[in-house]
C-alpha cells in the first residue's frame, strides 16, 4: 500500500511541473515574434507611413522617380493619378502610388 501512495504522490506533483514546462516551451516562440516585430514589421510600417506622407505632399513641378524607374516631372495632379512629363513632348499618366520617391538636385 505504501508503494501505491508514493506513485500517486509523484503523479500529482508531475502535473504541476508539466503546466510550467508547457509555458516555458512557448517562450522561444514569443521571443521570435517580438524580434520579428521590431526588426521587420515596425520598420515596414514606418516606411509605409513616410511614403504615404510623401505622396500627400506632392505638387506640380516636383521631380520624381517612379517605381518602374521612369524619371520625370509632375505636370498635373489628380486624386489618384499624376501626369508625368518624361521628355519634351512625352507625358504619361500614372497612379500616384507608383511614385517611388522625389529626385534630389544631385541626381539631375
**SSE topology string:** HEEEEE
Helicity level, as a percent range?
40-55%
- Please count the beta strands (DSSP E, at least 2 residues each): 5
Distance between the first and last residues' Cα: 93 Å
Q: How do the strands of the widest beta sheet line up side by side?
A: 4-3-2-1-5
Tell me, briefly, the overall form. Answer: rod-shaped
Report the structural category: alpha+beta
Largest sheet: 5 strands, antiparallel
Count of DSSP H/I helices: 1
Number of structurally distinct domains: 2
Strand content: 25-35%
Low-confidence stretches: none
Average pLDDT for all residues: 86
Radius of gyration: 30 Å
Short description:
The protein contains 1 helix and 5 strands. With about 110 residues, it is an alpha+beta fold.
Fold and architecture overview:
The chain is of the alpha+beta class. It folds into 2 domains: 57 residues; 49 residues, Roll (SH3 type barrels). 51% of the residues lie in helices and 26% in strands. It is built from 1 helix and 5 strands, in the order αβββββ. It has a 5-stranded antiparallel β-sheet with strand order 4-3-2-1-5, covered by helices on one side. Strand 1 and strand 2 form a beta hairpin. The longest helix is centred in the first third of the chain and has 55 residues. The protein is rod-shaped, with a radius of gyration of 30 Å. The model has no long low-confidence stretch (mean pLDDT 86).
Amino acid at each position: 500500500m505504501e508503494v501505491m501512495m508514493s506513485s500517486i504522490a509523484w503523479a500529482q506533483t508531475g502535473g504541476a511541473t508539466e503546466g510550467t514546462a508547457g509555458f516555458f516551451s512557448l517562450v522561444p516562440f514569443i521571443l521570435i515574434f517580438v524580434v520579428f516585430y521590431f526588426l521587420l514589421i515596425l520598420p515596414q510600417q514606418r516606411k509605409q507611413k513616410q511614403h504615404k506622407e510623401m505622396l500627400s505632399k506632392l505638387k506640380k513641378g516636383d521631380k520624381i522617380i517612379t517605381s518602374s524607374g521612369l524619371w520625370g516631372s509632375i505636370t498635373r495632379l489628380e486624386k489618384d493619378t499624376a501626369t508625368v512629363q518624361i521628355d519634351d513632348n512625352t507625358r504619361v499618366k500614372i497612379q500616384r502610388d507608383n511614385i517611388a520617391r522625389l529626385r534630389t538636385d544631385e541626381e539631375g
